[in-house]
């Protein structure tokens, strides 16, 4: 067993220009068993992060074999369309992350709709807001994709604040009421 502990990052550590994303050349197979589990077999994600570092970006988005964006290197992708929080479906090749699930369950409590659907590289920059989630970094709002400024959504900011509040109060660890 391997356990890795890191201090919880603060949103203040994000560069002044915001969380910067690129598109990776690495492809995730949407039908692969390994795309649905966290394992040591994460070479495409490691290579994608190396591409992000070379491009002086904070993270990279990966596409599946159908040309749809699946996820970031170590986090789930979300975008905002009006008042709807969208994320790729699990059959796209993204991981069923714990934080992803928490956000999907939190949205209705904040009077936000959710949708699982695919998005292309052409469509994503036109969305109202984009963010990445994972258990280590929480919610990170993207400010640019391929050096192109992205829209800023108050919905993404609201979700980030609600997630941070749940983290502080321990609501992330509490079982859901039936």
Can you tag this structure with a few keywords?
28% strand, 9 strands, alpha/beta, 22% helix, 178 residues, single chain, nine-stranded mixed β-sheet, D-amino Acid Aminotransferase, Chain A, domain 2
Task: Write a compact overview of the structure shown.
This protein is an alpha/beta fold.
Question: What is the fold's blueprint, element by element?
Answer:
Blueprint: E1 19-28, H1 43-54, E2 59-64, E3 69-72, E4 76-81, E5 84-87, H2 98-109, E6 113-116, E7 129-134, E8 138-145, E9 148-149, H3 154-169
Parallel strand pairs: 1-2, 1-8, 5-6
Antiparallel strand pairs: 2-3, 4-5, 4-7, 7-8, 8-9
Averaged pLDDT: 85
CATH topology: D-amino Acid Aminotransferase, Chain A, domain 2
Q: Main sheet?
A: 9 strands, mixed
Order of helix and strand elements from N to C terminus:
EHEEEEHEEEEH
* Alpha-beta content class: alpha/beta
Shape: globular
CATH class: Alpha Beta
> Considering DSSP H and I runs of 4 or more, what fraction of the residues is helical?
10-25%
CATH superfamily: D-amino Acid Aminotransferase, subunit A, domain 2
Number of domains: 1
- Radius of gyration over C-alpha positions, nearest whole angstrom: 15 Å
Number of E-state strands? 9
- Tally of DSSP helical segments: 3
Beta content? 25-35%
What oligomeric state do these chains adopt? Answer: single chain
Distance linking N and C termini? 33 Å
- Contiguous runs where pLDDT drops below 50 for at least 5 residues: 9-14
């Amino acid at each position: 067993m391997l356990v890795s502990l890191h201090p919880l990052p603060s949103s203040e550590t994000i560069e002044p220009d915001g969380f910067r994303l690129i598109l990776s050349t690495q492809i995730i197979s949407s039908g692969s068993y390994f795309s649905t589990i966290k394992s040591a077999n994460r070479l495409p994600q490691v290579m994608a992060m190396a591409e992000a570092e070379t491009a002086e970006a904070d993270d990279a988005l990966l596409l599946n074999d159908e040309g749809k964006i699946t996820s970031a290197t170590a986090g789930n992708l979300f975008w905002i369309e009006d008042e709807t929080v969208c994320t790729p479906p699990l059959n796209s090749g993204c991981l069923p992350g714990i934080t992803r699930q928490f956000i999907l369950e939190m949205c209705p409590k904040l009077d936000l709709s959710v949708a699982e659907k695919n998005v292309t590289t052409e469509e994503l920059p036109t969305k109202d807001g984009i963010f990445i989630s994972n258990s280590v970094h929480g919610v990170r709002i993207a400010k640019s994709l391929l050096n192109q400024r992205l829209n800023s959504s108050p919905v993404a900011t609201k979700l980030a604040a609600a997630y941070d509040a749940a983290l502080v109060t321990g609501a992330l660890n509490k079982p859901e009421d039936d």
